[in-house]
Design a protein that fits this description.
alpha/beta, 7-stranded mixed sheet, 12 strands, binds pyridoxal-5'-phosphate, 11 helices
């Protein structure tokens, strides 16, 4: 019973934070509904198309809706985009030509992206292997962009400036949309022709605004994270300036074909309904993250972000002293998942990741991380990155079990 008392007390203290998040969800829900109404969605748009997918209006309307929600000119929203990494890679490979320069202003990118850029090993097929020049500007210790280095290194000829909104497997805070806007303005003042690309994974619907309405040219992310609302069974999206979306589409299919082809294949209702649910589901996940942050910091653990700090992603990190403790935390999340609850997790090597990783994902959609999930690379500092949760009730239950396993049944 002790854990329940802690939770009820924490919920009282979190009331004001919960209300702020609720307001954000309401605003985003209205945005999504407006887009649906504007495009007069009908259930015949859910029918899966076949073959080339010519004239697939359900596909085209979904892309128009996503563009409107993100205040972009156009978008690509497809199950053929296999993951968030694929969506981001498509932007980079489409737009960067040999000799071009790309600068990241949020330090080392997420593990799978570092691999496609060739940050550490310019292996075959990476951006560096193709003659793209790459520079990394780390964030300051405060988590703010390094404005001075930005001024020093961005050149008028810089082709792409890359921003990763979410923390990835690092302890830095997510970059706020406000800071993303400042980066965009600063970069454009030096390099008006540069293209600003944001890895928007885990960021969608956590704030009132999205990056494209704040001067960013392209955003990309995964449909088995926030914007899929837990219902989309696979896929990725890209949204932004129309001319850039066309170039990316030419890369994804073939020059001249672009967005005109691509069969729906599966019931498209999952994508539409998932997008409709997304602001609410993101709220569930954020409330769960706050509850974890507050209760675990009360138990003496370091939590990032802290419960009272602003958020721009759904990820909650908790730091442990040992790999064993970290493993136990992830195993507990797995144990109280709706699927595969009897599986005992271990660290293992996964394609695209530098270190062995452990991933708790007892999810309806394989690997979905808008569902309650938790992962961690096997490296110091030992941190669990928990995210998602389709219902706050599930998050709350699991936080209770985590308190019992980690703090009371040691
Ligand atoms: C999840 C994620 C990605 C993409 O991951 P996929 O598993 O390929 O969808 C990229 N960047 C960040 C920061 C992420 O969290």
């Amino acid at each position: 019973m002790k854990s329940l008392e802690i939770i009820i007390r924490a919920e009282k203290e979190l009331q004001q934070q919960f209300e702020i998040l609720q307001e954000i969800a309401c605003l985003n829900q209205a945005k999504v509904l407006d887009a649906f109404r504007n495009h007069r969605v009908r259930d015949n748009m859910f029918f899966p198309s076949t073959g080339y997918g010519y004239g697939d209006s359900g596909r085209d309307v979904l892309e128009a809706i996503v563009a409107q929600v993100f205040k972009a000119e156009d978008s690509i929203v497809r199950p053929q985009v296999v993951s968030g990494t694929h969506a981001i890679a498509a932007c980079l490979f489409a737009l960067l030509k040999p000799g071009d320069e790309m600068i990241t202003v949020t330090g080392r990118p997420y593990d799978t992206l570092a691999g496609i850029i060739g940050v550490d090993h310019p292996g075959s097929g990476t951006l560096r292997d193709r003659g793209i020049r790459y520079r990394e500007i780390a964030l300051l210790d405060s988590g703010e962009p390094d404005w001075q280095s930005l001024h020093n290194h961005v050149q008028p000829g810089t082709k792409i400036v890359f921003i990763q909104r979410s923390r990835g497997y690092s302890l830095r805070p997510a970059l706020s949309v406000e800071n993303i806007e400042r980066v965009s303005r600063t970069v454009k003042s030096i390099a008006p022709l540069s293209i600003i690309v944001v890895d928007n994974c885990y960021g969608e619907f956590t704030e009132n605004q999205e990056p494209v309405e704040c001067g960013v040219d392209l955003i990309a992310g995964s449909l088995i994270k926030n914007p899929g609302g837990g219902l989309a069974p696979a896929g990725g999206y890209i949204a932004g300036r129309q001319s850039l979306i066309e170039e990316v589409a030419f890369h994804l299919t073939a020059p001249g074909l672009g967005k005109e082809l691509g069969a729906g294949l599966i019931d498209r209702r999952w994508f539409y309904q998932g997008l409709f649910m997304a602001p609410h589901v993101v709220l569930q996940a954020l409330k769960g993250a706050l509850l974890l942050a507050m209760t675990f910091s009360q138990m003496g653990y370091q939590t990032m972000p802290e419960w009272d700090k602003p958020r721009s992603d759904i990820v909650q990190a908790v730091r442990f002293d040992s790999a064993d403790e970290l493993k136990k935390f992830c195993q507990t999340v797995q144990k109280y998942s709706p699927l595969d609850s009897d599986v005992t997790l271990e660290f293992a090597q996964l394609p695209g990741y530098a270190d062995p990783v452990i991933m708790a994902a007892g999810t309806f959609v394989q690997g979905s991380s808008i569902e309650l999930s938790c992962d961690a690379p096997l490296r110091e500092p030992f941190c669990a990155f928990m995210q998602g949760g389709l219902t706050y009730e599930h998050c709350r239950y699991v936080v209770g079990k985590l308190l019992e396993e980690m703090c009371f049944n040691k």
